[in-house]
Amino acid sequence: MPIIVKTVVVHGATGQQGGSVVRALSSTGYRIRAAVRDVDSAKAKDLAALPGVELVKVDLADIDSLITAYTGVDAVFACTFPDRVNSQEVAHGKAMADASKAAGVKLHVWSALESIKTITKGELFAQHFDDKAAVTEYIKSIGIPAAYIYLGSFMENYINFPGASTYDAEHDKIVLKYGGLRTDIPLPMVRVSKDVGEVAKIIAAHPDDFVGQDIAIADVTLSIKEHAATIQKVSGKQCQDVQGPELPQFPNINNMYRFANDGKYKFFAGMQQPNPILKKYGFQASTFESFVAEALLPHLKLEAVKDAA
């Protein structure tokens, strides 16, 4: 019997991934249960004001609260956020999968990553990658209908991470510093606040096409040097790319960059980017130029030059 999606539970609803999904599905008539920890937060209340959105309080450590939230829904969008002190991603990811199975959810969409430890044969370990990969294997082992989306590096990291992009007013230039990543290494990029929601709309409309699929969504692969060239074009200002030092407080990020810097590894190497089924249904990923003009330059209190983007 074909899967029909009308009602969706969305995790991470007040964050970038989940928020993108909530807004996109709300705009196209789906009913959404926005899973949040605090229904009284300002972000949660903003979501509740959107058409078709209701808030549901969940505790990822309490499977009963998840089953209650999932009962009667057609699909679940599941994502986790890494905690560098005491990661619970595996436990939380497994709990969401178990709740989907118990509630009879028709499609479980998991925001996945590859296992860096497996790819490098134990040479490197990046917990946020390897934990998500462990959850992927668990989801496959329990036999629920699932789809796995692979995002890539977030364009928004230039805004989210302090010091990743700055404007030097004295010298009238923009400076990019992306941790210990080499500036000539290309990475798959997504504008998470827009692209994930667009992908979710396509999956919700054509769920049977995506069951069991690894879905890479990035359609932009650029190095920091190329970012700088684009920013310079859009802003009309000099843009300097700098390879910053590794950050001792973020060992998993450092290992992710070591993986990229090695040169012999590529993220999502075995996947078509973006997934051809997404392209079949008209998916158009955000361009880096549009991100710069619409988000990065306003963040830096700058303006795009006319017609640059």
Tags for this entry?
309 residues, alpha/beta, Rossmann fold, seven-stranded parallel β-sheet, three-stranded mixed β-sheet, 12 helices, 13 strands, 18% strand, globular
Give an overview of the whole structure.
By secondary structure, the chain is an alpha/beta fold. The chain has a single domain (7-299), classed as 3-Layer(aba) Sandwich (Rossmann fold). Helices cover 39% and strands 18% of the residues. Helix 2 links the parallel strand 2 and strand 3. It is globular, with a radius of gyration of 20 Å. It comes from Exidia glandulosa HHB12029. Belongs to the NmrA-type oxidoreductase family. Pfam families: NmrA. Residues 6-282 form the NmrA-like domain.
Protein topology:
Blueprint: E1 7-10, H1 16-26, E2 31-36, H2 42-48, E3 53-57, H3 63-70, E4 75-78, H4 89-103, E5 107-112, H5 116-119, H6 127-142, E6 146-150, E7 153-154, H7 157-160, E8 165-168, E9 173-177, E10 187-190, H8 192-205, E11 214-216, E12 220-222, H9 224-235, E13 238-242, H10 251-261, H11 276-280, H12 288-299
Parallel strand pairs: 1-2, 1-4, 2-3, 4-5, 5-6, 6-11, 7-10, 9-13
Antiparallel strand pairs: 8-9, 10-12
Output the CATH class name: Alpha Beta
What structural class do helix, strand and pairing data support?
alpha/beta
Return Rg in Å. 20 Å
Biggest sheet: strand arrangement: 3-2-1-4-5-6-11
What is the name of the CATH superfamily?
NAD(P)-binding Rossmann-like Domain
What is the makeup of the main sheet? 7 strands, parallel
Helix content: 25-40%
Q: DSSP strand (E) fraction?
A: 15-25%
Average pLDDT level: 95
The CATH architecture:
3-Layer(aba) Sandwich
CATH T-level fold name: Rossmann fold
Oligomer: single chain
Give the total of domains: 1
The topology string of helices and strands comes to EHEHEHEHEHHEEHEEEHEEHEHHH
Count of individual beta strands: 13
Query: Count of helical segments?
Result: 12
